[in-house]
Amino acid sequence: MSVRAQLLMPEGFLWGCATAAHQVEGDSVDDWSQWEEGAGRIYQNQRSGAACEWWRGRFGEDFDRAATLRNNAQRLSIAWSRIEPQEGQFDDAAIGRYREMLVALHDRGMKPMVTLHHFTNPIWFAERGGWLSEEAPALFVRYVRRAVEGLADLCQLWCTLNEPMVLATQGYLFGYWPPGHKSMDDMARAAANLLRAHAAAYHAIKSVQPNSQVGYAHHHLGLQPKAPAFWHRPAAQAADQLMNVAFNDALLTGVFKLPFRRAIAVASAKGALDWLGVQYYQERLATFNPLKLGNAIGTEKPKGVPVGPKDWGGLVPQNLFGVIERLYKRYGKPIYVTESGVPDPEDTLRRQWIVESVRALWRALGFNYPVRGYFFWSLLDNFEWAEGYDPRYSFGLYQTNFQTQQRTQRLSAVLYREICAQNGLSAEIVAQYVPELLPKLFPGESGAPQVRLKERY
Ligand code: FCB
Questions:
Q1: Which keywords label this protein (predicted)?
Q2: Which residue out of 115, 159, 163 has the highest number of ligand 1 atoms within 8 Å of its CB and is therefore the one to mutate?
């Protein structure tokens, strides 16, 4: 019998999908639903509306789907705006609803990872100045405490914030997301408050639930200088410091240093991390153009690699290995890939993305980098922020028809199921679902002349 190659993960490795409240629940009332009302902000002026109808009860059927995919974990977020719809008034029914979701996951053999903040805020919080307010960390942590107290018997794995630097830049520097500010000062202030909020939440969760595991989801933007590198490299370094380094370093040192700003001390942040979440999607080229006043540093799509739609950058999933290596070497924390995926309505790129990503995880594990789980973005197509329901931004293993709420399985879902069921990747899986990758991933399994096969027996 021939022995087929397998790249197996350690026992207990978490396989799942990730979702976020505002993107799937529907019927949201928060700063985002308010923002969606303004013309020209969302693709075709769409609203999140009913989204995937999780709040109306469809989470159960979608968790069934995740269970069919042999997922043993699921990352989802809970909405602050539902749990504290008015300042200081907590809605026990909303907590009860989230309890139902977590129970539903446990019933299906899936361990929940709960994100406490995934981009959206209660309207009252936004009206009080949102993340620019000095009170923001304290307001956030009051909610966090209530939420964790209400859910602690159903969850130990907490993610405080999703992509704080993406939120700070999209909302306060580029003005694409609420509150639509375009100010370096506001961005820096919001980012510092998000850092304080994370630190306060970390300590609060540990005091409510000492055996909890608390981390946050870091968006890792792949960045290279455009050619000529000597000219553009300082731009790449500044963008890297802003998006990839500053927040994480503050958790190591207690000092928050954004590019072109004075360092500030946030002592509570030092060591406030049990694990690091990595979300890796795209590669960009950093550019420096001194003629663009106030905007001299930019990024653009790379050439020579597959790229995503519109402004989406280069798709180089194998780089996940280097991202993990860099983060582990610097921060020394266990790592979860809390999101990884690709905008791909026709499902032509996703299988390759998944297989290359899983191989990158396996390589990382081979170096003893402690990768604990992988959450694919996303289980099903959902509301993609400013891109709304633009079909080009379909991320799901299941396609969602937003008129009928029908879900259709993509072939990638079947591939992912095989990987989760086998706890890794095998030559068979690659041969069946992404045959063009077989010579690269399992060279000994492909292209060998028939006669050699005989010799094996
Ligand atoms: C990430 C976000 C997630 C989703 C994916 C495509 O940056 O965390 O909500 O929008 O991108």
A1: Glycosidase, Hydrolase
A2: 163
User: What is the whole-number distance in angstroms between the Cα of residue 429 and the centre of ligand 1?
Assistant: 27
| CB-based burial, 23-50: b 16+ in 10 Å, e otherwise | bbbbebebbbbbbbeeeebbbeebbbeb
The amino acid that residue 392 corresponds to is R
Which alpha helices (H) appear in 9-113, and where do they start and end? 21-24, 31-35, 59-68, 80-83, 92-107
Q: Which of 168, 197, 198 is nearest to 184 (CA)?
A: 168
Q: Is the pLDDT of residue 447 over 80?
A: no
Nearest to 222 by CA among 307, 329, 115: 307
Ligand 1 atom 9: the closest Cα is on which residue?
A: 20
pLDDT digits (tens, 9 = 90+) for 260-303: 999 999 999 999 999 999 999 999 999 999 999 888 999 999 99
Q: What is the largest CA-CA distance in the chain?
A: 75
Query: How many A from CA of 35 to the centre of ligand 1?
Result: 17
pLDDT at 294: 81
Domain ranges of the chain: 6-441
What is the pTM for the complete model shown? 0.96
How is residue 358 written in tokens? 């899983």
The residue among 36, 63, 61 whose CA lies nearest residue 48 is: 36
From 113, 353, 385, mutation site for ligand 1 pocket: most ligand atoms within 8 A of C-beta: 385
| Domain 6-441 homologous superfamily, CATH | Glycosidases (3.20.20.80)
Decide: 165 in ligand 1 pocket, CB within 6 A: no
Beta strand 255-256 with 264-265: parallel, antiparallel or unpaired?
antiparallel
